[in-house]
Amino acid sequence: MASPATCAAAFLAHPPALLDYAAIHSCLLRGDARLSLPLLALLLLLHFRLLAASASVHFTPAVSRLAARLRLSPSMAAATLLALGNGAPDAFASAAALSGPAGMPRAGLAAILSAGAFVSAFAVGAVALIAAPFAVPPAPFARDVFFYLVAASALFYVYLSAEIFLWQAVGLVLFYAFFVGLVFYMDLGGDEAKAASTAAAELQMANGIGRVAMDLPVTVEDRKQQDPALCTVLRKVTEVWEQPIAFVLKLTIPSTLPSEWNKFYICANICLCPLLLLYSFGSFIPLDTRIVFLLPQIRFPIWAVVLFASLCLALSHFLLEKEAPETENTASTLVSFIMSVFWISTMAGELLNCLAAIGVIVDFPPAILGMTVLAWGNSVGDLVADVALARAGQPRIAIAGCFAGPMFNMLVGLGTALVVQTARVYPKAYVLEFHVGIVVAFVFLLLSLMGTLLVVTWARFRVPRFWGYCLMGIYILFTIVSIAIASSSR
C-alpha cells in the first residue's frame, strides 16, 4: 500500500488534469487492478461520451451556422470549419499526448498517423463500396490528395531525422494555411461560391447525423418492432446515461437557437463559461494568481474575481431578460463554438490520461494504445459521417472530407503541439522518439494516398468499386502488422 506522502505527491503530479488516474489506482483503490480497471473503463466510456456529445450535439451545429453566415464554399468549409469539426477530437488528444508522460508523445503521433490511415484507407474504401463508381472533380481531388501526400512525406522525413526544430514545426502549420489559401483561390468566383451556405449546412448536418448515429447504435431502432420490451430497457439505460451529460453540457455551452432559449441555462452559461475559459488558460495564468479588485489593500485570487463578475452579469440577465430573442445571436454561436472546443480539448486530455493509466496497469505498449483505441475512438465518427454522406448521394463531398480532416489533424493539430514543444527547447531541437511501428504507419499512409491518386487518375477521375476493397485490405494489413510489431517490441 502506498504511503500518504506518496499518494499526496501522486495526486499533485499532473495539476492540469481533472483527475489523477494513477493515484486512483495506487492510492484510492490500493493498487487492486480488479477494482481499478472496471472503474477506469467506466471513466473511459464517460470521457468518450462527453467528447462525442460535445462534438455532435453542440460543436457541429455551431460550425454549421458559422459556415452558413460566412458563406463558405463546400471546399473552403471542408478545409477549415469541417476539418476542425471532424479533426478536433483527434487533434486535441494527440496534442495532449505530446505534453504527456514518457511514452505518450509516441502514442499521440501514432494516433495521428493511424487515424489518418483509417480515414484515408478504410473510410474511403467504405465510401467507394457504397457509391462507386462515381466521378470526382479532377482539380479539387488531385489538390487534396497531393497536398496530404506532400505533408505526410515531409513529416516522415522530419521523423526519420529524429528531431524537429521550431521553424519546421511552424512550417507544418503554414503549409496548411497555404492549402486553405489555394482552396479559396480555386473556389473564388466558381459555382461553389453561389451555393456556399446551403452546401456547408447540408454537409455539417450529415456530419452531425453520422456522429449521433455513432453514439446511438441503429440496432436499437432496427429491433424496435421486433422486441419492444428490450428496446424500452435500452432506451431507459441510454436516458440514464445521457441526461447528466446533456445537463452538464447545457450548463456550459449556450444554445444558438431562439426556440431552445432557457433563462436558467443562459444564466448558468454566463456564470460558468468565463471560469472554465480561465481554467483552460491555467498554464499561462494560474487560478490562484492574486490581483487587486475593488479593495486596494486586498488581493483576491483571479478565479474569485472572475466568478464574482460573472455572477453579477448572470444575476443582471436573470432580472432584466424576460423573453427569448427573436433571431439567432451570432455572439452566442461563437461562444458555443469556443466552449465546445474547450470540452473537446479537456475530455481529450482526460481520455489520454485515463488510457495511459490503463496501459500502465495492464503493461500495454503505448504504441498499441495510439494505433488502436485512441485512433479508432474518434475516427469512427468520421467513418459514419462519410458513409452517411455517400448514402445520401454526396460521395464527392464524403471523399473530400476523408482527406481534409486527417490533413488538418497532422498539420494543425500535431503541428501546433510541436510548435509549443519546440518553442520550449528553442534554439535546440525537440527530440522525436523513434519506433518502427510509426515508420510502418507512415509507409501505409503514403501507400494508400499514392494508390488512391494513381488509381482514380487512371480511371479518369472516377472511383472504382474494386479500389474500395483494396483500401480496406490495406488498412487491415496495416493494423495486423502494427500490433505485431508493437507486441514484439515490449
TrEMBL record:
GO terms for molecular function: antiporter activity. The keyword Ribonucleoprotein does not apply. One of its GO terms (biological process) is sodium ion transport. Its main location: membrane. InterPro entries: CaCA_antiporter (IPR051359), NaCa_Exmemb (IPR004837), NCX_ion-bd_dom_sf (IPR044880). Signal peptide: none annotated. It is found in: Membrane. Gene3D superfamilies: NCX, central ion-binding region (1.20.1420.30). Keywords: Antiport, Ion transport, Membrane, Sodium, Sodium transport, Transmembrane, Transmembrane helix, Transport. The chain crosses the membrane at residues 35-55, 110-134, 141-159, 165-185, 264-282, 302-320, 332-361, 397-422, 434-459, 466-486. It comes from the Eukaryota. One of its GO terms (cellular component) is membrane. It is a multi-pass membrane protein. Residues 41-184, 334-483 form the Sodium/calcium exchanger membrane region domain. The keyword Transmembrane applies. Belongs to the Ca(2+):cation antiporter (CaCA) (TC 2.A.19) family. Cation/calcium exchanger (CCX) subfamily. This is Sodium/calcium exchanger membrane region domain-containing protein. It comes from Urochloa decumbens.
